[in-house]
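Exercise 7. Given the components listed, write out the predicted structure of the assembled complex. Treat all entries as one system.
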Amino acid sequence: MQKSLVSITDYSKDEILRLLQHAEKFEQNPNQPLLEGKVVATLFFEPSTRTRLSFETAVNRLGGRIIGFSDASTSSSSKGETLKDTIKMVSNYADLIVMRHPLEGAARYASEVASVPVINAGDGANQHPTQTLLDLYSIQKTQGHLDHLNIFMVGDLKYGRTVHSLLMAMGHFEPNFHFISPDELKMPSEYKQFCDDRGIAYTEYNELNENINIADILYMTRVQRERFTDLMEYEKVKNVYSLKNKMLENTRSNLRVLHPLPRVTEIDEDVDTNEKAYYFQQALNGVFVRQAVIAYVLGFIS
Amino acid sequence: MESKEVKMVAALRNGTVIDHIPSDKLFKVVSILHLDELPNQITIGNNLSSSKLGSKGIIKVSDKFFTDQDINKIALLAPDAQLNIIRDFEVQEKKKLRIPDSFEDIVRCGNPNCVTNHQPIVTRFYVTNHQPLTIRCHYCERMMIADEIKIK
Ligand SMILES: [Zn+2]
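Answer.
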């Protein structure tokens, strides 16, 4: 059985830490021709330019070649071919499949029918494990370690898959979680249960205020209009959960603000120049983390 | 020992008796086992008095011995039901139902955006909690609790 990465829970704490170490080495020395002569398929059944470019940059830095498509309308699946047949066909051509798909569970299924490793680059609202790894990498890099941190998650905690995966991955490191969201977008009970089962402390708040002064990490997420039936409510929430520069005045010096990007209004542009703003560097870290994951699933590093 | 009331429903030479089905689950059990398609003699009783359940249902099917897959389906719907295998008018085996840790091709995923609802894929679920019954889809990882669980 080959080593795919579908869900962050596929990896143990030890594996996660080793991958982060490898990512650090790729950051120090990004151009390493480990994939010479290898072909990587990037199958994007739904478009995501940001994620695709990050993966393709990672493959290029490793000296590999790329085949694939960036939109399902140009792929054979639009002609009614089953996902299984597409994956089986691509397995014959490529040494590794990176796939993004609008349906939840598509990557798990692909990993079961493919004869080569599959890296999940997002399956609907379910998982996006390389995003989680790059979040962990960013936290470790800015804090020096991952243990016992005050992690604040802000915004859409109900539908935001990045916060759910990050919560599960951070669960290895005895964090103190703080959830800030409107009532209609609260952290689902199954994730609070996850914390309870592991003795992980968490506190829930409705307001983004001076509570954040004890934060080590402020993880902001997008509050999307589609999540609200009442548009008035959306307008209200949108303003309440928007981070402004002056709110960072009395926060810890080691605090860093993360966001999976793209942002809309949840972080005011006046935060961008604050040294605590880390979201742009965070995105760059994605390339190094993806280099590590690619090299790992292909067995070039252990 | 069978109660008088159960005996009144019908005596069975060979076959299976599914007893202690909660009354509100009886016809769902009939449906998931596709008993309406069976040519066998079937006796169905419902709203019978039961000291344990208050009111119960019972199903007797002649010359029918259910597969493990069918038994798992019954367990999901009515975990406290009891299965009696009858041979020559005697209870040969009493089976207490047990919900398996995982099961394939029984439940339909309740997540409309799950790949199993769009591609020809055999569903697979894991039991993550027994009380209340909670299961997780192997593919989309979504949790479903008791009433949300839809049997194929
Ligand atoms: Zn599912």
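Discussion: The first helix of chain B runs from residue 4 to 9. The pocket of zinc ion is lined by residues A 105; B 109, 111, 114, 116, 137, 139-140, 142 (CB under 6 Å).
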